[in-house]
Amino acid sequence: MTLAAAAADMEEDERQHPSQFAHKPNFPPLKPDEISDGKIQFRVIPVPGRRLTPLKKYWLAIYTPIYEEMKIDVRTYVKDRRRRVELKTRSETPDISNFQKCADFVHAFMLGFDVIDAVALLRVEELYVESFEIKDVKR
C-alpha cells in the first residue's frame, strides 16, 4: 500500500464516519484596549537618589524606545521630593505586555544596569530581572 492510497483510505473513512468532536471555533484577536477593558493602566517606578544623575544623563535613551517603539507614555519627576518615573498605556499601545516590559526596563535601569543592557528586556521575549536585598550579614 502506497502513501497516497493510505491517505485516500483515511479520507474515505472520515467521510463515512464524521468526527465526534466539534470543530475548533475561530475567534478574531482582541484589540489592545479590549484586553484591559478599555482602562488606562498606570505604573510608578521610584527613583533612588543615587540614580538621579544617570537618569538625567540617559533620559533620551530611556524615553525613545518606551515612547516610540512600545507606544507607552512616560514621564519623570526628578526635581520633586517624590522622585519617580511614571508609565501609562495609550490607545495605540499594540500589546499590553509592552507595559510590563517597559516597567521592567525602567526598574532594571534603576537597579544599575546600563541602558544598552536594559533594552534587551524590551526586545527579548521571556526575559526578566529578579533582585533581592541582603539584610542579614554575619561578620
TrEMBL record:
Keywords of this entry: RNA-binding
Gene Ontology terms, MF aspect: RNA binding
GO cellular component terms, semicolon-separated: nucleus
Domain of life: Eukaryota
Keyword Transport tagged: no
UniProt KW RNA-binding keyword: yes
Annotated segments matching region Disordered: 1-35
InterPro entries noted in UniProt: KH-I_PNO1_first
PANTHER family: RIBONUCLEASE Y, RNA-BINDING PROTEIN PNO1
Record's protein name: RNA-binding protein PNO1
Lineage of the organism: Eukaryota, Viridiplantae, Streptophyta, Embryophyta, Tracheophyta
